[in-house]
Amino acid sequence: MFFYELHEGDDEVYSDVLVVSESEWEPQEFFELVQRVRRDVQDRFTQDTLSEAIAAVLERDYGFVFVSDDRLAAAVNVSTDEADNFLADLGADLDDEDDDDGDDDDEPRGDFRTIVADLDIDGGSRLN
Q1: Contact 14, 7 (CB under 8 A)
Q2: Residue 124, in any domain of the structure
Q3: Separation of first and last alpha carbons in the chain
Q4: 17 phi and psi angles, rounded to 5 deg
Q5: pTM for the whole structure
Q6: Exposed/middle/buried for 126, CB within 10 Å: 0-12, 13-18, 19+?
């Protein structure tokens, strides 16, 4: 098995995708394949990210396996703090969060995206 990674984003926010192949691809050959696929899908993909769209095409057309969250059998949160170790719920869904059961344990649930905002903290206050 040979593992290949696709990175998308800048230095602060990025997304990584893994694809696996039973065949070994030379790095330059893999790069050229990814570039061809990127050009084909960049303006019309339906996945959340360009890297996921490329991975889906690599799986569909070139025999790669896209290692997506959908394929996870288990996920474990690990920490040096014993209380922070747990088996994550793979079935977590954002629609299930509004259950009003009063359980506010502050554990993250559902899918998350990163947002980076530049704040001008020295710019003074602004009253609305």
Answers
A1: yes
A2: no
A3: 58
A4: -130, 135
A5: 0.64
A6: exposed
| Amino acid identity for residue 87 in this structure | L
Place of tokens 């359980």: 103
Residue 56 belongs to a domain: yes
> Is 95 within a domain?
no
The CATH number covering residue 53 comes to 3.30.70.2710
Cβ–Cβ contacts within 10 Å for residue 19, how many? 24
Q: What is the pLDDT of residues 100-123, one digit of tens each?
A: 444 555 555 555 556 666 666 666
Query: What phi and psi, each to the nearest 5 degrees, are found at residue 42?
Result: -60, -25
65: domain range?
Answer: 2-70
Inter-axis angle of helices 50-62 and 27-41, nearest 10: 110
pLDDT (tens digit, 9 = 90+) per residue, 1-31? 999 999 887 666 667 899 999 999 999 999 9
State the total domains in the chain.
1
